[in-house]
What does this fold into?
Amino acid sequence: MLPPLATPPDAAAYGYQLPPERAEALLARASARVRRAAGRGAITAQTSEVRLPVVRGTVTLLGAPVVSVSGVRAVTEDGGTGEQIAWRWGGDGLLAVPHHLVDQVDVTYRHGFEVLPDGLVELVCQVAFRLSQQPAQGEGMLRTASVDDASFTYASEQIAAAGDLMPGELQALKSALGTPSTWVVRSGGRR
It folds into this structure.
């Protein structure tokens, strides 16, 4: 289980009062929902070694932002890890590799946020607060709300669906993470 993306003191600093006995669990649940909506498990910085195809000299590294590339090794015909190959990375997401020599490479790189953007931390706190306001699972399978003369009844499935990010929260996630993208790494060949 990955650690929460925010802490109870973070929530308090942003003005979200979480129940002290449930604060850690709520922040863990909110963090899981944010990671799921972001489409990646790890948002915080980590080093990964992954095997990736070389397609027309292009290798796509996931988990932006890419912080550094520390090694590129050729993959042998039998699927083993071969020798370190020449590569050049300019820090802008472009890695030059001799693509005519290999079909796959093992890349070791560091990616993710060393320090989480404030907007992302606040979003996790906001989602945790919203989750703290929901009834316990299975506590009454129907919920009724009334406004003036209108009455609305919601099934438990609709209440459970509110556990995912709401449209405004999804927009805040996009703002915090920047434009969803992958970092494209390509060879120094002609375009």
Notes: The chain has five helices and ten strands. The longest helix spans residues 23-38. The chain has two domains: 8-42+115-137+158-177, 46-112. Strands lie at 46-53, 58-61, 66-75, 81-84, 88-89, 95-96, 104-111, 142-147, 150-155, 183-186.
